[in-house]
Specification:
By secondary structure, this protein is mainly alpha-helical. It is built from five helices and three strands. A three-stranded antiparallel β-sheet has the order 1-2-3. Strand 1 and strand 2 form a beta hairpin.
């Protein structure tokens, strides 16, 4: 990736994974393929040398969230990179990919992706601090 623009780097990584997974778009079917790919790779990769894979696959998953649910790439309050929705929700796709690598299908990126409409419809929790 030669572009210094972080958004362009994320999109370039996502596009590279899209081609490797041989999916035509960043959509629900692509996320299903991603979940299956993670399951195929889980026994082959060790946690200590997985970071590059997580960055690439997380970029792809994030772009699926952007395209599928009109999210937008941004930085969270803690400085992490992720996808925001409606200025009220923020999800870290790299964390979600790592969760599936660590825990298998019980933390499936496909299940998380499918839960986005419900998550966006839920009221925000009230804050109980002054």
């Amino acid at each position: 990736m030669t572009d210094e623009n972080p958004l362009a780097q994320l999109q370039e990584a996502a596009e590279s994974v899209r081609r490797q997974l041989q999916v035509p778009a960043f959509d629900e079917a692509a996320v299903q393929r991603l979940a299956a790919f993670i399951e195929e790779q889980r026994p082959l990769l060790k946690r200590e040398n997985i970071q590059g894979v997580v960055v690439a696959l997380g970029s792809f998953f994030g772009q699926c969230l952007v395209d599928g649910y009109q999210g937008e790439w941004g930085s969270g309050p803690d400085g992490t990179t992720g996808v925001g929705f409606q200025g009220t929700r923020f999800y870290n796709p790299f964390y979600r990919v790592m969760l599936q690598f660590d825990n298998g299908l019980k933390e499936s990126v496909a299940d998380f992706y499918a839960s986005i409409p419900q998550r966006l419809a839920e009221p925000l929790p009230k804050r109980n601090w002054i």
